[in-house]
Amino acid sequence: MDEEERLPRDRGLMEEFRVALVESQLEDMGYLGPRFTWERINLSKNNIRERLDRGVANLAWWMFYPIFLFITYRILSSITDWVEQLKKQKAGLSRNFVKRLDHLGNLDKNDETLSKLINVKLHLNMVIEKEKLYWEQRARANRLKMGDQNTTFFHKFASKQHHTNYIRGLQKDG
User: Fold this and answer.
1) With contact defined as beta carbons under 8 Å apart, do 138 and 151 qualify?
2) More confident residue, 164 or 133
């Protein structure tokens, strides 16, 4: 793993990994593209940048797939472009609905305009709901992840859930 600023590593584990690679006759495949593939954006003195995507292969594999890196780089480039376009479209979608709402709000109120207004509001609400769901899922994933790292946080969260789910008693039905 390439890093701009190395963190302490367990040298014994790293040596065992190197031995396993040598015994398996595996070599680093190298890389194309940016040196670092992940970055935790923070203040410059604390910023961490790493290359996470590594591949290893042996000579037989290279002989069988000689153009692997070229094909992989082309695919990676097209996926990266696609993700950027998707982000722009997503941001533009909400803006377009808001502009259309504003425009329709300034028109005379007849059946056709009101129908279009309702339709645009419906679609905007769907986009907002999807965005809300995304952030809720992301918050839940972060909460579960933080629970592994922060036992006090996790304990408080679990205790609150326990109190929420607690059944105080049962009533006879009928």
Assistant:
1) no
2) 133
